[in-house]
């Protein structure tokens, strides 16, 4: 056999490559597959050149594998990653003294000095076997899951510059060639070179070898760390299990904060990467991660408290479950491996703390994953591992399945294509009739384990099956169409939706198909480190008879099929939230596709089919009352179709606007398919936890249509009708009205009157909806409507003023609507001429009078203000107030209007209203801080200023209503200070004389005040405490001042004091204070 060292053929990028020798070809294959011990056992004598080539080819050859074990990301983009740093160290000449002895590589790597750190050299050692690194040690003391930069640098040196590495056979081979003297010399030199470390060990070994009974002498031969692995050793890459456990535990303890959720997702991605490289450490690492997840102390806490875990945490558990499905579905795993995984999965699933598939530990209803009877409480407990356990029963031995995944050209013979077939469609293409999520899990497993071509073939077979099913469903619907449309509801629906499913079947097919269409290096970083979306190109489907069909069109088609599937809303908050999140994820992926003619053709075809597919489609004419709404999906379809087929875009979006669960409850007969055990809850929608989100998506769809229809009256009218029919939330309709208004009134251009009218109509609907119900934003809504009507113009304002009673409360109509309409700003904004202003003012006055009649308490003042400039209207408003004063109005409302009248120069009317207010008032003896006191003092001052007659008229009312002595004495004092009648009313004479307290009307007031003081004194003395004695004495002093205003006042006061002393003689201390002050 001719042997030579590899020349150019081993160098990457070399233009000239000589063919590999037969020895190298054979050595390569043996080095990758056989443990060196097996080679030695198989052949009695292996020539040294052969040994050298096997040893040479046993080191890993793929840099991707080194990258996989040295950073979280599969493509190292960050400069701080060990892989990138390792490359830098290699390229800057920091790797030296590289030596390969058998299956052991050693060298030194020097970290250059930095401003803060001196230069450091690390010794690195790597053991390898069958193209896998089996152990690493580095002087840097790195403690991490991944290899340090120094191990990376040394590994890459060996891969990139193999001819520069000194290569020696395993040390045992070299020793075998030495005679006794040479061996002794070697040992002694070795001890001398490292005597401090080696001498004790050397002496111990020498003692054992010289002892005939020692253990070392019972074993034939001696170990050789450079001789590669033995036959029984596992052949897998070095993975620091303790570090994996430690890091997962640490990330979990941070509870998803500080980016730990992102780190755990990176670990899952690493598992997927390992599976794709068919590296057995994928399953090993996943086992370690799962053990730590199951040991998370929060699990038992959540279970005890019955509380749900956080969304981030739930998503991590979901990914864990999905990864296990991938692992157990490995098409080439050994049966003993699978049974080991099954045992482990069952053990975890049986633990009480194991999270359930359909959500948290709370009191959510069980998930409907199978059509089980409605009353079935014995529904099996499904954990996050249940699907992986079930997947262990699946196998790959089916001959039809094997043919599908192994050939692009597997078809049925043309003569067999007549009639029904379970294996092929009418065109002869293979079908795979499996439960769809399970079939897609197989695709995911193939793709995850590096069988991408096989995954594509199975994905195509699944799509052909879905197409055929869709066609057959449409045929069934055509026969039932008339009956279903008459009933207006259907019980036909999918109990297990594909969107939001734990196995994410649609996402899996989409990724599998688009991956093959992605242009190389399309996902790169832009200047600002923002990841740009991938760029796709059409790749024809291998073996497809349709030349226009590409994997990209298939990806779009299957995503549309899945999103458009009519399906029941699942039970439980988490499952529902997952449906919404998964929808958004798929739409985000669809938006990355740049729609060309081929994709638009697919889009249009599928949109039409979804509209015509009846109850099997969420966009069919008839759907189940509890179907998942299509708003998010339809919004994507609308935007995508609009530039190409506007009619179809609107048809889809308008069809999707419905939200049947909010319509009046369907009759029980509409639900009843005996074999569909859907738990329909009798009350309205208690189990729709995501209703708020769904309604906002419905609103988004409507807003998108409104924006697009700007300027098109016919389309706007249709969209408006759909909104009025289907949206039931006043807040959301208000949001739509605001959106429409904003779009209709751009800052730089004239307003779009068609859209403005729609905004106004929506606003009017909101007013009617919220008129009789409480809404905290009502005031804002009313103000906004007036603004909108002002933008529309005079006729709109007149209209809302004339029909106010259907839109506003009387208070809103007068204080906000009419007041704003009549403001100077509105007049200027509309540039009205005099007749137009008068028309508007007349409408506002009519409104004001109607409101005052309906609600005089709250509207009378506003009505008077609005009618000021029209004498007849003002008189009418005043009369309404007078008529309402005796029945429905409070003293404070009447006092306010009375003060307004005085301010407007109507003192006599003001007096009349003040008198009416007094009849409603009652001030008790102890209410000396009552808010109405100021009004009473003002009313008396007004009467006094008008003259003696008015004062005489109001005093009896005051005496009747006010029983508080201090207030009465204050009024009395004010009335005696100046002469009455100072208001100077024309036709009245003012005498200029002060009024006497001995004569009417003040005599009556004085008597009432004295009487109030006497009554108040007795009331206060009933429950007086010593700390109030001083205050009481001051009160008596004020009383004496009032008593003395009467002719015999001093006699009355003395009698009053004597009377107190007699009645309250038991209060000795107080009476002593009374005697001291008053004798």
TrEMBL record:
GO terms for molecular function: zinc ion binding. Signal peptide: none annotated. Residues 893-1070 form the ZSWIM4-8 C-terminal domain. InterPro entries: ZSWIM4-8_C. It comes from the Eukaryota. Pfam families: ZSWIM4-8_C. One of its GO terms (cellular component) is Cul2-RING ubiquitin ligase complex. Keywords: Metal-binding, Zinc, Zinc-finger. PANTHER family: ZINC FINGER SWIM DOMAIN CONTAINING PROTEIN 4, 5, 6, ZINC FINGER SWIM DOMAIN-CONTAINING PROTEIN 5. This is ZSWIM4-8 C-terminal domain-containing protein. The lineage of its organism: Eukaryota, Metazoa, Chordata, Craniata, Vertebrata. The gene is zswim5.
């Amino acid at each position: 056999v001719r042997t030579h060292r590899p020349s150019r053929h081993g160098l990457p990028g070399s233009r000239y490559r000589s063919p590999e020798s037969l020895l190298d070809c054979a050595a390569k294959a043996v080095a990758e597959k056989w443990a060196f011990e097996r080679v030695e056992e198989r052949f009695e004598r292996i020539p040294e050149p052969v040994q050298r080539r096997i040893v040479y080819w046993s080191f890993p050859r793929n840099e991707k594998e080194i990258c996989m074990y040295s950073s979280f990301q599969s493509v190292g983009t960050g400069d701080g990653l060990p892989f990138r740093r390792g490359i830098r160290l290699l390229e800057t000449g920091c790797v030296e003294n590289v030596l390969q002895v058998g299956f052991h590589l050693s060298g030194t790597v020097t970290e250059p000095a930095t401003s803060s750190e001196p230069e450091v050299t690390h010794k690195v050692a790597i053991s390898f076997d069958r193209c896998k690194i089996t152990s690493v040690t580095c002087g840097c003391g790195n403690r991490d899951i991944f290899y340090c930069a120094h191990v990376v640098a040394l590994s890459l040196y060996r891969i990139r510059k193999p001819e520069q590495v000194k290569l020696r056979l395993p040390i045992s081979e070299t020793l075998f060639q030495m005679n006794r003297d040479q061996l002794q010399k070697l040992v002694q030199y070795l001890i001398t070179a490292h005597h401090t470390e080696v001498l004790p060990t050397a002496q111990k070994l020498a003692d054992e070898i010289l002892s005939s009974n020692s253990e070392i002498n019972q074993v034939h031969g001696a170990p050789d760390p450079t001789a590669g692995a033995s036959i029984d050793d596992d052949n897998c890459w070095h993975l620091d299990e303790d570090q994996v456990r430690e890091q997962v535990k640490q990330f979990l303890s941070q509870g998803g904060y500080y980016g730990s959720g992102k780190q755990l997702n990176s670990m899952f991605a690493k598992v997927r990467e390992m599976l794709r490289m068919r590296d057995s450490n994928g399953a090993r690492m996943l086992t370690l991660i799962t053990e730590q997840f199951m040991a998370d102390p929060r699990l038992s806490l959540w279970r005890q408290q019955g509380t749900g875990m956080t969304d981030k945490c739930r998503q991590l558990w979901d990914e864990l479950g999905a990864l296990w499905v991938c692992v157990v579905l490995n098409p080439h795993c050994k049966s003993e491996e699978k049974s080991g995984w099954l045992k482990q999965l069952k053990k975890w699933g049986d633990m009480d703390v194991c999270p359930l598939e359909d959500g948290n530990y709370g009191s959510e209803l069980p998930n409907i994953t199978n059509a089980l009877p409605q009353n079935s409480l014995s529904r099996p407990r499904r954990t996050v591992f249940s699907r992986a356990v079930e997947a262990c029963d699946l196998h790959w031995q089916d001959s039809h399945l094997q043919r599908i995944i192994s050939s692009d050209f597997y078809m049925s013979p043309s003569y067999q294509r007549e009639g029904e077939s379970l294996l092929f469609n009418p065109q002869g293409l293979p079908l795979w009739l499996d439960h769809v999520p399970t079939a897609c899990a197989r695709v995911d497993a193939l793709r995850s384990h590096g069988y991408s071509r096989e995954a594509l073939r199975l994905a195509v077979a699944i799509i052909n099956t879905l197409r055929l099913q869709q066609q057959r469903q449409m045929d069934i619907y055509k026969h039932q169409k008339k009956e279903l449309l008459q009933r207006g509801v259907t019980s036909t629906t999918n109990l297990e939706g594909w969107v939001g499913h734990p196995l994410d079947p649609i996402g899996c097919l989409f990724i599998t198909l688009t991956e093959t269409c992605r242009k190389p290096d399309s996902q790169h970083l832009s200047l600002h480190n923002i990841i740009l979306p991938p760029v796709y190109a059409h790749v024809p489907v291998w073996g497809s008879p349709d030349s226009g069909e590409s994997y990209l069109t298939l990806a779009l088609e299957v995503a549309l099929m899945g999103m458009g599937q009519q399906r029941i809303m699942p039970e439980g908050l988490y499952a529902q939230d997952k449906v919404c999140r998964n929808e958004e994820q798929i739409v985000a992926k669809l938006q990355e596709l740049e729609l060309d003619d081929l994709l638009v053709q697919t889009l249009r075809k599928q949109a039409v089919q979804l509209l015509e597919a009846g109850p099997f489609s969420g966009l069919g004419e008839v759907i189940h009352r509890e179907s998942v709404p299509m708003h998010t999906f339809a919004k994507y379809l609308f935007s995508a179709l609009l530039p190409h087929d506007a009619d179809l875009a609107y048809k889809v979006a308008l069809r999707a606007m419905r939200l049947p669960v909010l319509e009046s409850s369907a009759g029980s007969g509409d639900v009843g398919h005996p074999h569909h055990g859907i738990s329909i809850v009798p009350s309205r929608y208690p189990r729709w936890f995501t209703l708020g989100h769904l309604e906002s998506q419905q609103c988004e769809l409507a807003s998108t249509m409104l924006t697009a229809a700007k300027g098109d009256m016919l389309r706007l009218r249709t969209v408006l009708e759909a909104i009025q029919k289907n949206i039931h939330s006043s807040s959301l309709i208000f949001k739509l009205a605001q959106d429409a208004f904003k779009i209709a009134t751009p800052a730089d251009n004239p307003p779009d009157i068609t859209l403005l009218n729609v905004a106004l109509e929506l606003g009017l609907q909101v007013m009617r909806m919220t008129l009789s119900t409480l809404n905290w934003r009502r005031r804002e809504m009313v103000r906004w409507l007036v603004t909108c009507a002002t933008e529309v113009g005079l006729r709109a304002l007149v209209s809302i003023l004339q029909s106010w009673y259907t839109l506003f409360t009387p208070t809103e109509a007068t204080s906000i609507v009419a007041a704003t309409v009549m403001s100077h700003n509105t007049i200027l904004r509309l540039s009205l001429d005099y007749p137009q202003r008068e028309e508007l003012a007349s409408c506002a006055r009519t409104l004001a009078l109607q409101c005052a009649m309906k609600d005089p308490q709250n509207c009378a003042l506003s009505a008077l203000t609005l009618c000021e400039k029209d004498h007849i209207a003002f008189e009418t408003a005043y009369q309404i107030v007078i008529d309402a004063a005796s029945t429905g109005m409070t003293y404070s409302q009447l006092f306010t209007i009375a003060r307004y009248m005085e301010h407007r120069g109507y003192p006599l009317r003001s007096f009349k209203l003040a008198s009416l207010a007094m009849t409603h008032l009652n001030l008790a003896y102890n209410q000396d801080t009552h808010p109405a006191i100021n009004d009473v003092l003002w009313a008396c001052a007004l009467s006094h200023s008008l003259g003696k007659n008015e004062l005489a008229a109001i005093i009896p009312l005051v005496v009747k209503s006010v029983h508080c002595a201090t207030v009465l004495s204050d009024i009395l004092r004010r009335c005696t200070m100046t002469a009455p009648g100072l208001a100077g009313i024309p036709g009245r004479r003012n005498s200029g004389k002060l009024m006497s307290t001995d004569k009417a009307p003040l005599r009556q007031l004085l008597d009432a005040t004295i009487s109030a003081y006497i009554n108040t004194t007795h009331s206060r003395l009933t429950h007086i405490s010593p700390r109030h004695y001083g205050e009481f004495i001051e009160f008596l002093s004020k009383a004496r001042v009032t008593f003395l205003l009467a002719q015999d006042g001093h006699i009355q006061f003395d009698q009053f004091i004597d009377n107190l002393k007699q009645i309250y003689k038991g209060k000795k201390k107080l009476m002593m204070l009374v005697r001291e002050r008053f004798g």
